[in-house]
Design brief:
The chain is 39% helix and 15% strand. The strands form 2 sheets. Strands 3-2-1-10-11-12 form a 6-stranded mixed β-sheet. It has a 6-stranded mixed β-sheet with strand order 4-5-6-7-9-8. It has 455 residues and is α/β, with parallel strands linked by helices. The protein binds 2-acetamido-2-deoxy-beta-D-glucopyranose (NAG) (5 copies) and zinc ion (2 copies).
């Protein structure tokens, strides 16, 4: 009897294990080959743009992009933490934030090749799905909507990771699709959303740069017909930056088209994984009845580089890398575990990558499904402590100051609304909610202290 029971529970246990898979997501490594330790803080790295790198150490400085030591450390940390992932998602941005004059096609290719090498060297047997970032082109962000030298060169560089058919579409516009791990019923869609970036002058007058939208629409339609489940990865996300009010990345017409694409095909899209922000955030997608239908996860960057975007106060972060746990039968995202390097500590004492948090534990949800992420969002909007936790994770535990009411509105509305108009009206609604909330708290605390004083 007990043997049967034991056998049964072992079988069940095995079944559960078989359903669960995991993969790495890394993004925004931004190697700065000029990084060096010198006595003049303004000359530590070219990516600081003459801001002083006051706390420079061997693993980097918050004013700078990554020294080689940090890139090396992050890739070996992946190997140490989870040596055999099902696959790796790498969403681009390899070169430093320096003026175009300091780069060039060959320098950009050299850096992309350098990072490609370390990833394939440390993970020789892992499938890597690799998307281009806006910094993986010269001049930066100017990806053309058709065949190009850089697409050709990078397709060749990544040939071990690309199927023959992927090579063809990559050379046409930097995008591709493949069966996920070559398994029937599962698909990866790798987009080149740099074509939609508002900094890109090559594509602004084109309706469908490189034919990527119509291609993706067709792939997703076929996926539905073939009962496939799909993950989408890319670099520049639609919607708004949470650290600067009303700052979108996509051109308006492309933002609309992207949103339509996800709404139309949401039944086959099980997750979207992007980078570019360097922060840890997520974006919700809803259908016309306001039902949550999809989530885009924005993973933190490896570079700690403090953004120089005007209007952002102290926009640096600790280096972060992340594991997604998913159901291998349904592709449902079950959990997200973020690991980080406390850069200050690494420079001062020792290099230690540690778990920062596990989504289901820290935010008390059952999984990372769109319904659960919607719960996270609604709780952030209402609960100050919960919001504060989200805020600290947003910069990978770098910025621990209090998230005030403007900050609340920025985080809530950027996560809730990818659509430009809806984001605007969210700002208005939430600002007045903040006013009530902010106004009520002092009143409440005065009332409480009066009650207490009268006892
Ligand atoms: C850093 O900038 C200096 C001057 O601006 C330039 O001469 C040098 O080549 C740059 N270093 C790298 C590695 O690009
Ligand atoms: C890269 O990291 C590995 C593992 O920590 C270490 O053994 C190696 O010396 C590092 N290489 C460089 C160039 O820092
Ligand atoms: C990448 O470049 C760094 C210097 O910036 C060099 O030390 C390292 O060996 C290179 N690694 C690979 C794998 O090419
Ligand atoms: C993918 O699967 C097909 C058929 O099942 C097989 O012919 C092909 O070699 C596989 N490709 C890879 C890269 O494993
Ligand atoms: C990072 O390390 C520094 C120096 O050891 C420490 O003061 C700081 O509290 C650490 N930050 C976090 C989030 O643990
Ligand atoms: Zn970046
Ligand atoms: Zn970027």
């Amino acid at each position: 009897m007990s043997t049967v029971k034991l056998l049964l529970s072992c079988l069940l246990f095995k079944g559960v294990l078989a359903l669960s898979g995991n993969f790495w997501h890394i993004t925004d490594l931004h190697l700065d080959p000029s990084y060096k330790l010198t006595d003049n803080p303004e000359q530590v790295c070219n990516s600081s743009g003459n801001r002083p790198a006051a706390k420079a150490g061997i693993y980097g400085d918050y004013a700078c992009d990554s020294p080689w030591q940090l890139i090396n450390s992050s890739v070996y940390a992946m190997k140490d933490i989870l040596p055999d992932p099902d696959f790796i998602v790498w969403t681009g941005d390899d070169t430093p934030h320096v003026p175009n004059e300091q780069l060039g096609e060959e320098k950009v290719l050299h850096i992309v090749r350098n990072i490609t090498h370390i990833i394939s060297h440390v993970f020789p047997n892992s499938k890597v799905y690799s998307a281009l970032g806006n910094h993986d082109y010269h001049p930066k962000s100017q990806f053309p909507g058709g065949p190009d030298y850089m697409y050709d060169q990078i397709a060749d560089m990544w040939q071990d990771w690309l199927d023959p058919e992927s090579q063809i579409t990559f050379k046409r516009g930097g995008y591709y699709t493949e069966k996920l791990l070559n398994r029937t019923g599962f698909r990866m869609l790798v987009l080149n959303t740099n074509l939609y970036y508002d900094q890109n002058k090559q594509t602004q007058d084109i309706d469908d740069p490189a034919g990527q939208f119509s291609w993706a629409d067709q792939i997703l339609t076929e996926a539905a017909n073939n009962k496939e489940k799909v993950y989408i990865i890319g670099h520049v996300p639609p919607g708004f930056f949470e650290k600067k009010r009303s700052k979108p990345w996509f051109m308006s017409k492309f933002n609309e088209k992207y949103l339509e694409l996800v709404q139309k095909h949401n039944s086959v899209i099980l997750g979207q994984f992007f980078g570019h922000h360097h922060t840890d955030a997520f974006r919700m997608f809803y259908d016309s009845d306001d039902t949550p239908i999809s989530t885009m996860f924005l993973s933190p960057g490896v570079t700690p580089w403090k953004t120089s975007l005007p209007g952002v106060v102290d926009g640096a972060n600790n280096p972060g890398i992340r594991v997604f746990e998913y159901d291998t039968q349904t592709l449902l995202v079950k959990d997200v575990v973020t690991y980080y390097l406390n850069l200050t500590h690494a420079n001062a004492a020792k290099e230690r990558w540690e778990k920062e948090y596990r989504l289901t534990e820290s935010f008390r949800v059952s999984d990372a499904s769109p319904a659960s992420m919607h719960q996270v969002l609604e709780r952030m909007a209402k609960d100050r402590c919960y919001l504060q936790k989200y805020y600290e994770f947003n910069s990978v535990s770098y910025d621990l100051k209090e998230c005030d009411s403007d900050c609340r509105v920025d985080h809530v509305c950027s996560a809730r609304e990818v659509d430009f108009k809806k984001y605007d009206s969210c700002l208005k609604t939430e600002a007045s909610a903040s006013a009530i909330y902010g106004g009520l708290l002092p009143v409440l605390s005065v009332a409480v202290s009066l009650v207490l004083a009268n006892r």
